[in-house]
Amino acid sequence: MGKSKSVRLASDNLLRKIDDLREKNIGQHIPLPQLVVVGDQSSGKSSLLESLTKIPFPRDLELCTRYATQITSRRDLEPRVNVSIIPGPNASVEHRKYLNAFHPEGLTTEGFRLQFPGILKEANARMGIRMDPSSKDGNVFSEDVLKIEICGPSEDYLTVIDVPGIFRTPTEGITTKKDIELVQSMVKDYIKDSRTIILAVLPSNVDIATQEILTLAQDYDKAGERTLGVLTKPDLVKEHSAIVAVSNLVLGKKKPLTLGYYVVRNRGSDDDDTFDHAANEEMFRQEPWSRVPKDRVGVQALKTRLSELLAQITRNEFPKLRRDVKKQLVDCRRELESLGPARQTEQEQRVFLNTLTHQFQDLVGAALNARYHNHEAFEEQEELRLITHVVNLTEMFNYDFEKKGQLRYFESPAAESSSDDKECTLDESKKESTWPDMSAMKKLAAMDQAMFLVSIERNKRPYTLNGYFNENLQRLRVKKLEEKARQEVKFLCDDPKKPYLSPNLVVDLDVVKRAKANKSSVEYAKEEIHDILSSYYEVARKRFVDNVYHQAVDHCLLTGPMSPLTVFSQEWVITLEAEQLEAIAGELPVTKGKRAALEKKIHDLETALGILKP
């Protein structure tokens, strides 16, 4: 006996925790163990609920349930009744506040049942339910949930959820085809989860094969392991064969369900307050109803079984429930982290941009200093290896400029010259070539700097202090003297009058000088100008390539104060106004909504985890 009591107390504690979770609307995130009453509008569902809870639910078709109702009975020393509305998952912030303000005060267990019609009317108004057929305002059904909690020393621990009854034909001026679909969707949402015990309410006086609710239950409970059939209105079954058919259902001989069937006669709309359950149950002692097992007949037997089922499924699912909450919490936190830091306020937006600038400048520094091992991005995208590409392009530019950079040439195959140095003929017919049209690139600061350097080299007076110029000029002069010396030696060696001379003959330089002196002043000037220009060109070409790299590429594009790589900086972020920050770093509305939903869900799940602690 002691063990049985401790088990019951443990079950009551778990059930209380499940109710706490449901009150916090955790059911929209994690399916909770629950008993859900489903059936047609005319199945006797409201009467069954009244028999189970002693709450006088309306039974008229026009006053049928328009929203889910959660009824909780708790055994407690202090009698009390609490009524509230749990906002639906899609309720707006304003609607939530309005519903949360609904808390009828001063309710007692006795007074509540008398006040219930008025409470129901006020709840309908809060939810925006349209009750007047002539009115077009409001909704016929709602996703909000009416929660009723009854506590007292004589109450059994039981929680059931009633959902609107299924109907197939719209009522003119009241319901529509959309309402039919909405109710079916609500029913499916409640019964689809494996933690839900389905109480399928079936009128005994109707062929069970025609009952849509059983078919609907089978869609989500194919093995029939969590569906319990409740046969109502047995007093309307008059024929003996029909009673036998109902008995066979309860005995499992037809349409068997793992949880079986129960037969309950409830007070009908025509029965008054003198309805006697004891006298009513006398009916089940008569043939052929007496064939039905006694523990399958009557409200009390059903209520006891429902309490056992709810406690059993709660005990079985409680550890899994805790694991599911933990897993969803991890997933939600990871998803929220993927959105990055919040960017709702000006301060958050500025901090976000500053963080990005730090990361960007760190990446730029690595790219310019070839520290490619510091970031995975360089492995994934080789085009980010900036300094490598710059060096390669600069070397290509230097090579191309060396081969193709000349604008004037001193070479003319058509020219006749008496000079031994044919390549030194001035070609006045050669015209100065032009650079490609670069107007499309003139907006770039680097291109402006490059064109400025070109203009200096082309239009200003050539001048250099580079010692390489004199060295190169002297080298050219010596080279020409050496060439003349070789020609003189060859001439002497080839002279038939002097066959005894050796090719290794040392030639007097005066002879060479006289050979040079024989040139006209014009020819000599041409050679001298050629040598000077050739030497200066080498200096100017190398200087130009260096200047293009240092001033145009490195200064303007890479490291200078106006480099594109330095624009995105913390100094720039400081200058941004609030409107600019919002435009650049503010979150999109869809991201804001997603973040808010995730933050709320995380808060709910953390609350759930606290409730579920052993």
From TrEMBL:
Source taxon at top rank: Eukaryota
Protein's UniProt name: GED domain-containing protein
Gene Ontology CC terms, in alphabetical order: membrane; microtubule; mitochondrion
Keywords: GTP-binding, Nucleotide-binding
Biological-process GO terms, alphabetical: endocytosis; intracellular distribution of mitochondria; mitochondrial fission; peroxisome fission
InterPro entries xrefs: Dynamin, Dynamin_GTPase, Dynamin_N, Dynamin_stalk, G_DYNAMIN_dom, GED_dom, P-loop_NTPase
A GO molecular-function annotation: microtubule binding
Boundaries of every GED domain copy: 526-614
Residues of the Dynamin-type G domain: 29-319
SMART domains: DYNc
